[in-house]
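Continuing the batch. This is chain 6 of the set; chains 1 through 5 are on the previous pages. Same settings as before, nothing changed between runs. Recording input and output for traceability.
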Amino acid sequence: MKGFVYFLSSIFYHLTSLFFTFYLLLPTFAYAQTGWGPDVRLTYYIRGTAYLPKIAVSGDTIHVVWYEDINNQYLVMYKRSTDRGETWTPDTILSPVPPGASKMPDIAVSGSVVHVAWTEEVGDSILYTRSTNSGREWDIPKTLSSAGFVVNVSVSGDSVIVY
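Output for chain 6:
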């Protein structure tokens, strides 16, 4: 069997006795290899916490979303790798700026089209954005619903389901 398995995890990291944070790790495993490769740290925060990472893969491109709390501002973040996790883009903020309380993102991908939806707690809305060029550029987020909390995204061909 050929292919790659990607495992994304939030790991608790204790920097000082007064500061706690999470960062995202991406160890990879190729069936042709003997085990997991080294952890790849995806977030580097001095002040803040990364929560609930989600991952979607299309070909060699890995897409990751999460939300973070920096000084009580919650942002939906995105980054990608086009070489199976060897290198990564800088973080991209997907949620509106100034932020409300953007949380609980989910992600799905079909070819080069990437779909992300999340909960915006200010107004209890569900927001959605997409990229049609593998995450290089993003549409302006749109409000899909004025009610909702947990968001899931799935895609099949041209059909996108947000629930």
